[in-house]
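Appendix B. Chain record.
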Amino acid sequence: MEKLRSFGGKLRENIEPAIIDGRVPPNDLDAEAAVLSAVLVDPLALDKVLEFLKPENFYSEAHRRIYEACIELRSVGQPVDVVQVGTWLKNRERLSQVGGLAYLTEVLNAAPMVANVAAYGRTIHEKWRIRQLIATCQRVAAQGYVDYGEAQGFIDGAEQAVYQIARTQESVTTERLLDVVKKSFKALSDAMARGERTTGISTGFDRYDRLTAGLHEGDLTIVAARPGMGKTSFVLNVALNVASPRKRESPTNPNDAWEEPGRGVVFFSLEMPREQIANRMVCSEGRVDVSKIRTGYLSPQDWTKLTQAASFLGSLPMWVDDSPTLNILELRAKVRRLQAEFDRFDEQAGPFKKLGWWSSTTCSSCEVVKACLRASRK
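Structure tokens predicted for this chain:
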């Protein structure tokens, strides 16, 4: 796995693709010069691109050094102009690396439309993402011809590397309060339309939903208690309720009713075999004592209940994984594969079309819990 981390674990190393058969990796030197010229001309231009454009996004090493100088000068409160940038580079013996003052003057004379600097910055950022994808694929291909270790781990690492690039799209973390309020009111309106007071995904436990308003995207919920207190049973019931279809009716017109499909659920267990999990779920749904399955003393009524429960559970979009050595990388890869596999179907997919997803993990390992906490912050 350590070999995989070289291309899957640290995208921030800014790997650049090799030039093969004279083909130059995607870049836009004109856009890079335009951004630098705008930053040197207008002090406010840097603020428009600083949030998403980093020095490593530039293809030209000279442009990278100049942009880095602009950021450093701004961070210490110094003016950003051609003289200050030249002095900053000269003091660090980098002026010759960018072509001297002559090239700085040439960049300054690029004369862009300062109002379009954000568009130029997005072009640079997108070119950088494509270069990262090309370089990652080159490194994966090269590693595949030598000692790549365990096959599934190598494939998971390659998938994670590409997925990281897909997630590094330009994002704006600052949003106007009015827009945030509109989104909040839309969630409230949707809950009212469903006839509920839960803005998130209902767990099926009314008291829990009243306290938490359901399950929400981005939340990490940890259920902790002493052994034998029913942690697994509670989480299994929550997972079952999330995956089950729900009957809805309009709060204003009781005759206006419909059935809402359940959400896709993946249940990961690091200690209990999936057969035992399935037995628990079937018994819970059929209202049959689980000890009767273990001893084999089942009445005809119990068989009928279990058969009906198994038929119902088999129709739900739910999966169970009992890998005892599961790590965060493998967990993410498995969820992505399931989501990609079942979200790409058309109308014939029935309840699997465009599912919302919710994953649950049960374990007693402190290290796994710590890994989940770290991963939730990324």
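Further analysis of this model is presented in Appendix C.
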